[in-house]
UniProtKB/TrEMBL annotation, chain A:
Protein name: Quinol:cytochrome C oxidoreductase
UniProt region (Disordered), positions on chain: 39-78
Keywords linked to the UniProt accession: Membrane, Transmembrane, Transmembrane helix
Domain of life, per lineage: Bacteria
Membrane spanning stretches: 12-30, 97-118, 139-160, 195-213, 234-256, 268-291, 311-333, 353-369, 376-395, 415-433
TrEMBL record, chain B:
Name under which the protein is recorded: Quinol:cytochrome C oxidoreductase
Signal peptide span: none
Native species: Polaribacter porphyrae
Transmembrane segments: 54-77, 97-121
Pfam families, A to Z: ActD (PF11821)
Keywords: Membrane, Transmembrane, Transmembrane helix
Length: 468, 176
């Protein structure tokens, strides 16, 4: 049995506290009034005017932010309008910083769950010894879901944040200055009650499957009932995968595409899926490598690491494929209502937008293409860190341009969000892992998984005599 | 080894063959060739054959294909006759790059795949009308054959060893 060391526990708590301080700093340093925002802008202007020009170039982004604006008096000379615009962006920043990290960790836990369900449904022989690792990671779904519910409620019911511009008052009211006919046309889908209920339903469905499968996976260990429990888990996983594909797609519309309500893309759901899936596989590899180094995973050998790295490699390419399929079609046809999305990203987020391609595609493809490298934990960790960083940036670039526009940065609020959720992740994952046997004894494919061997791997520090 | 004879030991099971290869290797005999009707996992390792470098050549061919595609798109679309086609920016290669990516990808795969296959044919000496080098037609159906060069004086000793490993038939033949 694995023992969650007190050292690691304290480290995770420190991360949570430090992260919370960073998040708190973000909220405190956001302007609380228009005057304060103007002051901050004046301060910014002394650094150079690049932000301003970028903002004006980008007409649609500007327009979108109008929906964000609440009805203040319309004396409307353009500098005042601009100041108000920036004020709302600055107020959005701590929320968005928190939201990016939350979505990143929530999505990773969710995709580990989906990958786990897929492994059960595929009756895969190699991954059974990793089941408890995956189950432990999905434990992080619980706290992130609870926090997500709070964000959903505070955005919709209490109107504490304005990340979703369509939630602003008057968007659907033809008599209002804020009226937005385009968004109004979509109000059958994006309306506050529907959005809130849908979000909570997604979370409930995912957590219900996680709760069920975790309980019954442990029950499988001692069931000894002619694989009845195993078959029940199989059936539940089949149903979950169908539910997951539907809810994941709608979740990506609601939680990410809804940040840019004028824009739409048909493959967006898969794109978000690919981004989270490759991160999820990387996280599985990380936790596996860590636990194996602590001697907590007796059945795991280099071939399992090799397979995880193959998945990381393959899905990195898959992500790139979807990213490019989305980008190139829009770039090629250049229809204004679609292009604005990339214009906003290319004008104001050029560095993260381009660097994520290097981090998510070029680096992993060159590092992990070699079969030998894929089974060396050290290489997998280097590749994985870059992949995770790249996909954090990916989520960042999905969220920030729609919420904070030209005011995006990576500072204490963003870092705080990351550390906060990393702390929660470490705490929940390792305390869940110590609660169950690290070997899923009742699984009919366990024997096969323990002897899993990829043909051209020489196991380092393991006897390879019993394989051929 | 200036031997003029070879021993052909036939087996009818891949597991038996694999153990036999290991046993023969242990006695430090050189195995010239093993003929199998299908791939036997771990045979190359048991025989001590060096890993293939075919994947490395494929990688280099892929880079070649990519380079050719970059050169070709740049020369044709940007340098030689930069027309305005539907408003696509043909001022520099990078500006129009997304439109070239499908070509870049396909040519990379094309070069990597085809040149690797041709390399494989050349290295394995396979071509149309090539005379088959099969010592016994049964090795294409259900028998495995191990070929060991042998000196006249060692025939006896090796035959005993091979019989012990479960060979179903042992022939001493002149080297071809």
């Amino acid at each position: 049995m694995y023992q969650f060391s007190s050292k690691l526990k304290i480290a995770s708590l420190i991360l949570i506290v430090v992260g919370a301080l960073g998040i708190g700093y973000g909220f405190l340093s956001a302007p609380s009034s228009l005057e304060e925002a103007k002051e901050m802008m004046a301060h910014q202007a002394s650094h150079g005017d690049s932000h301003d020009t970028a903002n004006h170039d980008n007409k649609d982004n500007h327009e979108q932010k109008h929906a964000n604006k609440e009805v203040h008096g319309h004396d409307a000379n353009s500098t005042d309008k601009h100041a108000e615009h920036v004020y709302h962006q600055l107020k959005n920043r701590p929320w968005s910083a928190f939201y990016v990290a939350l979505f990143f960790f929530l999505g990773i836990s969710l995709l580990v769950l989906a990958f786990y369900a897929a492994q059960r449904v595929a009756q895969s022989g190699w991954s059974v010894v990793l089941f408890r690792v995956m189950e432990a990671i999905t434990a992080n779904l619980v706290p992130t879901s609870i926090i997500m519910v709070l964000v959903i409620l505070s955005a919709s019911v209490f109107h504490w944040n304005h990340m979703f511009s369509w939630m602003a008052e008057g968007t659907f009211d033809p008599t209002s200055d804020n009226y937005d006919a385009i968004v109004d046309g979509k109000s059958w889908w994006i309306n506050i009650p529907g959005w809130t209920i849908r979000g909570i339903v997604y979370l409930l469905l995912w957590n219900a499957y996680r709760w069920f499968i975790r309980k019954n996976s442990i029950a499988e260990d001692t069931a000894n009932d002619g694989y009845k429990t195993y078959k029940k888990n199989y059936n539940a996983s089949v149903i979950f995968l169908v539910v997951f594909m539907l809810t994941e797609t709608m979740m990506s519309w609601d939680w990410i595409m809804g940040l840019d309500p004028h824009w739409f893309s048909t493959l967006f759901g898969w794109y978000v899926l690919a981004s989270l899936l490759v991160s999820a596989l990387t996280v599985i590899a990380f936790v596996t490598i860590y636990l194996r180094s602590k001697g907590a995973l007796p059945g795991v050998n280099d071939s399992h690491i090799h397979d995880l790295a193959k998945f990381m490699f393959g899905f990195s390419v898959f992500w790139t494929y979807l990213w490019f399929a989305q980008f190139m079609l829009i770039w090629y046809a250049n229809i204004p209502e679609e292009t604005t999305y990339f214009a906003a990203r290319f004008n104001e987020y050029k560095l993260p937008f381009l660097s994520m391609l290097v981090m998510n595609f070029v680096f992993p493809i060159l590092l992990l293409i070699n079969s030998d490298f894929k089974s060396i934990p050290w290489f997998v960790i280097i590749g994985g860190l870059v992949i995770l960083g790249g996909h954090y940036i990916d989520i960042y670039v999905m969220v920030m341009p729609g919420t904070v526009g030209g005011q995006g940065a990576f500072g204490l609020p963003e870092l705080g969000g990351l550390l906060f959720f990393l702390g929660i992740f470490i705490y929940t994952v390792f305390s869940a892992f110590e609660k169950a046997s690290p070997v899923p004894k009742g699984n009919p494919f366990l024997e096969e998984s323990e002897h899993f061997h990829y043909y051209n791997i020489e196991h380092r520090g393991e006897g390879s005599e019993d394989h051929h | 080894m200036e031997s003029s004879k070879v021993i052909h030991a036939l087996y009818n099971d891949d597991e038996v063959l694999l153990d036999a290869v290991k046993a023969v290797k242990e006695e430090h005999h050189h195995i010239e060739e093993v003929f199998c009707p299908f791939p036997v996992h771990g045979l190359d390792k048991a025989m001590g054959i060096a890993p293939t470098r075919l994947a490395i050549t494929a990688f280099m061919y892929g880079i070649t294909g990519l380079s050719i595609a970059i050169w070709m798109t740049n020369y044709m679309m940007i340098q030689d006759w930069p027309q305005d086609i539907g408003g696509k920016p043909s001022f520099s290669w990078i500006e129009n790059m997304p439109a070239f990516v499908p070509i870049l990808f396909e040519l990379t795969v094309f070069f990597a795949a085809h040149l690797m296959v041709i390399t494989f044919y050349m290295r394995s000496r396979i071509w149309p009308f090539k005379e088959a080098e099969n010592p016994d037609p049964r090795t294409t159906d259900d028998h495995f054959l191990m070929e060991i060069p042998v000196k006249e004086s060692a025939v006896e000793e090796l035959t005993t060893l091979l019989t012990k490993t479960g060979a179903v038939e042992i022939n001493v033949v002149d080297k071809h």
